[in-house]
Q: What sequence folds into this?
């Protein structure tokens, strides 16, 4: 081993310190935004659609010069479709990467795991598509740009009762999933109020492969339709196994069904069924069409509802940053600076501006956040026919 | 009553898969006194091997492909897993064979974790959807009980493999040697039986049966992912203990009982207890009859 003399070592340290000093003083020109999502695992399409939507928005914005001359950078973490990984991912984004705002998740269970970390660190978090009401109840830094499950459950119940004229429902819920349990309860409550009957209420767990035992019980109760507030992987398998048992009633579901893999798994088993989405890709609104075309051009696929919401979540966040630049340039400057008290103050101001979002023109409709930090939006009903979707109706809140 | 028979039919089809996996546990235990915890993951590899083979042969993706192509897919997956089983034995278990049983057990858990994580790395964490190797059709039995041709295939293939295995163990020289090694390894060795080769053959057969189970599960429940082996592996282990570990007919009976009881619990109590029932059964067996249903039958040991 080579031994350095004390003087040489001292000189080296001084030189290193001098070399790194200008780096410290230099202002960072980027604003870092964190994103966590399920890029792999049982709900991989949720995370991938969301990532695509956010990327598309931010890259467009950067191509136009960013905000106030500053570029935005998205740091993405995969949570493998697991709540505990979601918490780890957000911890890393905040503590190590020093992001000033967080976008994510789709699944309410995972948003619920990560939101308390954002809240206590004072980092604003916008979930594009977690619909369980508990998510934004975590605290004042947590927002969403989609509707919530009490609304979703109610419109599905109304649709079944008043539009399809059905009265006997079976509910098949994922009892380990906050979203599914919440939505099942809101639906049941509304459906009973409208004079319907719940003839069977069965449950499964995410990751199950076999649902025939529960479906056999459901079949014996002779429901007119089955409401499945689950995620696409299980829904596809459930539909197939139901048909194999000769259970041929329509199925209804929420936005957890939104995935291009749903019909790939279900094949023909979901024909005649309905789901609720956040937007409709053939909406004639020019903003929607522009979004759909640029998404298709870049990813070679039609954006699903979750991609559209992710695009809007990025929009709402950067819109608040634009307003911060106008009203308080010094705070805006701190967003790209070192993680100190100034930046914490800037994040608090950014939080206030996100909360003040009114009539933001998104591709999923106009977005205004209410005093509980939730968006009030229209729901879109889609029907499934011949392995494709058809537009059925939009429902206003 | 119709509901009950429907649950029974589903339970038998599902139980046959447990039985096939349980056979691998019981054979390895019979010969080495080792609980091969990696066995459930071999089953996972079998499902993926079948998935990629079916993709390569174009079964299920090309329209009107002959269902007979399912046969090479099944045999190919079994061959791949037989090889995997042999490699696992050679590199993981043979070096520790003379060490304490605890060492071997920990090694088995290590192999299991290795296979799971290698699976995530190689196949990806997101689930894959098994191609429709055989076009599904629903058949109505008496009293409105409905089964699919897939379920019937599962039961038939399982029964065939189990009968084949029993004949092999009872009627062939190698089978006789396996029984001898199971009975007393050192004495068998003194009689000129190549113990190492017999152990290798046992791992190959057990793993091939797990691969068959993987293929059959892909057929009926077409979602496969790298961690799919954990729960069925544990349940098949319980099935082997329930039937009497080391006993081949015991593993079959245990597997079927597990499948049926799972269905009855979900159907008549709650799906929450689906996985709990396995452990309730395990505890009851250990309390009431630790040797399992057919455990005393030493002559049957493999």
A:
């Amino acid at each position: 081993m080579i031994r350095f003399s004390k003087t040489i070592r001292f000189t080296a340290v001084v030189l290193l310190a001098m070399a790194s000093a200008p780096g410290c003083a230099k202002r960072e020109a980027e604003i870092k935004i964190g994103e966590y999502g399920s890029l792999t695992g049982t709900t991989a399409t949720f995370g991938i659609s969301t990532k695509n939507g956010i990327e598309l928005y931010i890259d467009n914005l950067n191509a136009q010069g960013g905000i106030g001359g500053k570029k935005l950078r998205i740091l993405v973490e995969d949570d493998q479709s697991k709540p505990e990984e979601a918490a780890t991912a957000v911890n890393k984004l905040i503590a190590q990467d020093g992001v000033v705002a967080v976008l994510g998740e789709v699944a309410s269970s995972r948003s619920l795991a990560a939101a308390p970390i954002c809240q206590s660190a004072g980092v604003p978090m916008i979930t594009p598509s977690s619909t369980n009401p508990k998510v934004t109840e975590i605290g004042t830094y947590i927002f969403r740009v989609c509707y919530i499950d009490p609304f979703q459950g109610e419109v599905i119940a109304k649709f079944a009762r008043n539009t399809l004229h059905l009265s006997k429902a079976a509910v098949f819920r994922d009892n380990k999933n906050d979203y599914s349990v919440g939505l099942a309860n809101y639906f049941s409550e509304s459906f009973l109020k409208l004079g319907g009957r719940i003839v069977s209420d069965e449950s499964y767990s995410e990751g199950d492969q076999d649902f025939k035992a529960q479906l056999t019980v459901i079949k014996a109760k002779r429901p007119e339709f089955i409401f499945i507030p689950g995620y696409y992987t299980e829904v596809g398998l459930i539909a197939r196994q139901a048909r194999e048992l000769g259970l041929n009633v329509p199925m209804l579901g929420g936005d957890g069904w939104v995935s291009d893999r749903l019909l790939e798994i279900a094949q023909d088993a979901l024909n005649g069924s309905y789901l609720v989405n956040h937007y409709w890709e053939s909406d004639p609104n020019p903003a929607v069409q522009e979004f759909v075309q640029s998404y298709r051009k870049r990813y070679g696929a039609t954006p699903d509802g979750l991609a559209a919401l992710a695009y809007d979540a990025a929009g709402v966040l950067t819109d608040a940053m634009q307003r911060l630049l106008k009203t308080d340039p010094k705070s805006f400057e701190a967003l790209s600076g070192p993680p100190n008290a100034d930046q914490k103050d800037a994040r608090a101001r950014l939080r206030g501006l996100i909360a003040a979002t009114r009539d933001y023109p998104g591709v999923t409709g106009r977005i205004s956040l209410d005093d509980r930090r939730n968006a009030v939006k229209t729901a879109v009903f889609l029907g499934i026919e011949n392995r494709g979707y058809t537009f059925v109706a939009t429902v206003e809140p | 009553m119709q509901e009950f028979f429907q649950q029974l039919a589903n339970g038998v089809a599902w139980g046959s898969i447990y039985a096939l996996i349980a056979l691998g546990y019981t054979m390895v235990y019979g010969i080495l006194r080792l609980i091969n915890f990696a066995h459930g993951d071999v089953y996972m590899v079998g499902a993926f091997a079948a998935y990629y083979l079916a993709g390569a042969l174009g079964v299920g993706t090309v329209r009107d492909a002959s269902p007979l192509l399912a046969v090479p897919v099944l045999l190919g997956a079994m061959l791949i897993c037989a090889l995997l089983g042999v490699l696992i034995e050679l590199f993981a278990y043979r070096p520790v064979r003379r060490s304490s049983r605890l060492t071997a057990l920990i090694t088995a858990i290590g192999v299991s974790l290795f296979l799971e994580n290698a699976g995530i790395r190689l196949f990806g964490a997101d689930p894959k959807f098994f191609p429709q190797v055989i076009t599904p059709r629903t058949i109505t039995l008496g009293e409105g009980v409905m089964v699919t041709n897939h379920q019937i295939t599962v039961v038939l293939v399982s029964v065939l493999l189990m009968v084949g295995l029993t004949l092999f163990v009872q009627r062939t020289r190698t089978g006789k040697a396996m029984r001898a090694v199971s009975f007393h390894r050192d004495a068998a060795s003194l009689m000129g039986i190549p113990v190492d080769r017999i152990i290798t053959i046992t791992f190959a057969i057990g793993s091939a049966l797990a691969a068959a189970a993987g293929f059959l599960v892909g057929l009926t429940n077409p979602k496969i992912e790298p961690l799919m082996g954990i729960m069925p592996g544990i349940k098949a282990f319980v099935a082997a203990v329930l039937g009497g570990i080391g006993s081949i007919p015991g593993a079959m009976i245990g597997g079927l009982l597990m499948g049926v009881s799972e269905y009855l619990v979900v159907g008549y109590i709650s799906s929450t207890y689906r996985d709990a029932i396995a452990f309730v059964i395990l505890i009851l067996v250990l309390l009431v009859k630790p040797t399992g249903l057919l455990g005393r039958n030493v002559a049957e040991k493999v």
